[in-house]
């Protein structure tokens, strides 16, 4: 029986690249996203390329209660999740008072509440089996505040803090919790915020392969890219200054 991985936001960017990597490694892949057409196309692409079984779930995870609905769907099909990848998320760039409050609310639900609830549901199952892995996707933005992208950076700081805490709790059950903190990556993230993708953005495929390899080694905080790992040690005040400079444009 194949191991099963559940990936939220798995139809594009890092999520899709991770789905490709897991499929290549012969995992049965479950993908969650809100766009049905993209889900169907992703399923077709992965099954044709890797010959693995792909299950798709249309679910808007930015809504309260979506995590429980998704969990119930999967339990109804009697599928055991060996690895949970909480990748779904989005950001908003601009002065905090100018960002639509509904967009900010959805961002916080998706990036924090849904992630937390999915961890709760699937951790309970993993604890019973005494095995399992969770990969929560944060960001290098988790390491400092982000002027003009305040809610997004704060939400990723939550992901980092929460994940490090439950990692300690999960260890006694032989369950591993790791945190992926990618830097700028060439995905749809910037297009959706109305900005151009910065030069030097990492390839999502390279991010996914690095993340997969480190997850298998139970690395706590996974930071793809040498430059991103170097930037982590720069004093926070300096990083805040440059974040403001870049995001204010």
Q: What fraction of residues sit in β-strands?
A: 5-15%
Span of the ends, CA to CA: 51 Å
Strand and helix order: EHEHEHEHEHEHHEHH
Structural class: alpha/beta
Shape: globular
- Low-pLDDT parts are none
Work out the helix count: 9
Helix content: 40-55%
Question: What topology, given as strand order, has the largest sheet?
Answer: 3-2-1-4-5-6-7
The oligomerization state is: single chain
- Describe the sheet with the most strands: 7 strands, parallel
Radius of gyration: 17 Å
Overall mean confidence score, pLDDT: 93
How many strands?
Answer: 7
Write a concise keyword list for the protein shown above.
249 residues; alpha/beta; seven-stranded parallel β-sheet
Record the SSE blueprint.
Elements: E1 4-8, H1 13-24, E2 28-33, H2 36-50, E3 54-58, H3 66-76, E4 83-86, H4 101-129, E5 133-137, H5 150-171, E6 176-180, H6 189-192, H7 204-216, E7 221-222, H8 226-231, H9 236-247
Parallel strand pairs: 1-2, 1-4, 2-3, 4-5, 5-6, 6-7
Write up what this structure looks like.
- The chain has 249 residues and is α/β, with parallel strands linked by helices.
- Strands 3-2-1-4-5-6-7 form a seven-stranded parallel beta sheet, with helices on both faces.
- Helix 5 links the parallel strand 5 and strand 6.
- The longest helix is centred in the middle third of the chain and has 29 residues.
- The N and C termini lie far apart (51 Å).
- 41% of the residues are buried.
- The model has no long low-confidence stretch (mean pLDDT 93).
